[in-house]
Design goal:
GO terms for molecular function: catalytic activity. A motif (Histidine triad motif) lies at residues 101-105. The active site is at 103 (tele-amp-histidine intermediate). This is Histidine triad (HIT) protein. With 117 residues, the chain is an alpha+beta fold. The chain has one domain (10-108): 2-Layer Sandwich (HIT family, subunit A), CATH 3.30.428.10. 26% of the residues lie in helices and 21% in strands. The chain contains three helices and five strands, in the order H-E-E-E-H-H-E-E. A five-stranded antiparallel β-sheet has the order 1-2-3-5-4, with helices on one face. A hairpin with a 7-residue loop joins strand 2 (30-34) and strand 3 (42-48). Helix 2 (55-61) packs across helix 3. The N and C termini lie far apart (36 Å). It binds guanosine-5'-monophosphate and zinc ion (ZN). Zinc ion binds next to helix 1. Guanosine-5'-monophosphate binds at residues 10, 19, 21, 33-37, 45, 90, 96-99.
């Protein structure tokens, strides 16, 4: 069923507490934790607890939950005292997606180039 936990999904395992992570925020519907391979002084991943393969699938199935993820990205930025930050959703392997559970990267704490590489 859409949104159900997947046994083979790393981020579902983090949600379930079966894989450790440095959690910085948690709500009823979302978890935010530090990326294991940070690309900036702040690099936090915000995920819905429900499993959707990417941001578009999440937004199509549960728009309110997609909004929760965006709200939490701002909450992370506030907690980390970031005036500027970038929110990234990689969709598809050609764009660098490696984990097939929707997640927002929240990056900040250094200058960020635009356009990105
Ligand atoms: P993607 O490449 O799919 O957009 O982002 C996946 C992110 O998950 C990568 O930035 C990667 O460093 C991070 N990641 C992969 N495995 C783990 C893990 O076990 N723990 C944490 N905290 N982050 C992970
Ligand atoms: Zn998952």
């Amino acid at each position: 069923m859409a949104g159900e936990p997947q046994d083979d999904c790393l981020f579902c395992k983090i949600v379930g507490g079966h894989v450790p992570a440095t959690i910085v925020r948690e709500t009823e519907t979302t978890v935010a934790f530090r990326d294991i391979n940070p690309q900036a002084p702040t690099h936090v991943l915000v995920i819905p607890k429900a499993h959707y393969e990417n941001a578009a699938a999440l937004a199509a199935a549960e728009p309110a939950l997609a909004a929760d993820v965006l709200r939490e990205a701002q909450a992370v930025a506030d907690e980390e005292k970031l005036e500027s930050y970038r929110t990234v959703f990689n969709t598809g392997s050609g764009a660098g997606q490696t984990v097939w559970h929707a997640h927002a990267h929240v990056l900040g704490g250094r200058g960020l180039q635009w356009p990105p590489g």
